[in-house]
Design goal:
Helix content is about 80%, strand content about 0%. By secondary structure, the chain is mainly alpha-helical. The radius of gyration is 23 Å and the shape is elongated.
Length: about 160
């Protein structure tokens, strides 16, 4: 993503060395090299580049991931009364059923965030989507509440 930002900024401003490590370095450069000493902000660069098909795809992908997370919580909360009748689950197990997917999401976000910083965002999002499908599908065939809770945590 740093390379993408750097290339887009060069394209907009025609400079070879536009991306800086610190804000003070950027301000110093602009005061020295700009006739009016005017600093270019990241927002201005984004306004110049515009909103295209790539940005739409990113928003759509991230939005769909958010919708699946919301649907997950809704479905589980609606299924708890059924689980209480069929599997005779306790209140503690009901609470685990709701909280374990969030704990799994927290741990997964911390781990996947580190991986995504190294390899990019696309591969981890694809792998996470496939894992969501596999573990979600497998949880539909569980015969015990313990294995169901474990699989929901892996989702």
């Amino acid at each position: 993503s740093e390379m993408c930002i750097r290339d887009s900024q060069r394209r907009v401003h025609g400079e070879d060395n536009f991306f800086y490590k610190s804000e003070s370095e950027q301000i110093t450069h602009h005061k020295q090299n700009s006739p009016m000493g005017k600093m270019v902000t990241f927002d201005k660069v984004l306004d110049k580049i515009g909103f295209g098909w790539y940005q739409f795809r990113v928003y759509l992908t991230v939005g769909m991931e958010g919708i699946t997370d919301g649907a997950e919580s809704l479905v589980i909360s609606l299924l708890i009364p059924t689980f209480q009748k069929i599997w005779k689950i306790t209140d503690e197990q009901s609470q685990q059923l709701i909280s374990v997917p969030f704990i799994g999401g927290l741990i997964g976000s911390l781990l996947v965030g580190q991986v995504a910083d190294r390899v990019g965002r696309q591969l981890p999002i694809r792998i996470a989507s496939i894992a969501l499908f596999i573990f979600g599908f497998a949880s539909a065939f569980q015969s015990s509440i313990t294995s169901f809770i474990i699989l929901r945590g892996l989702v």
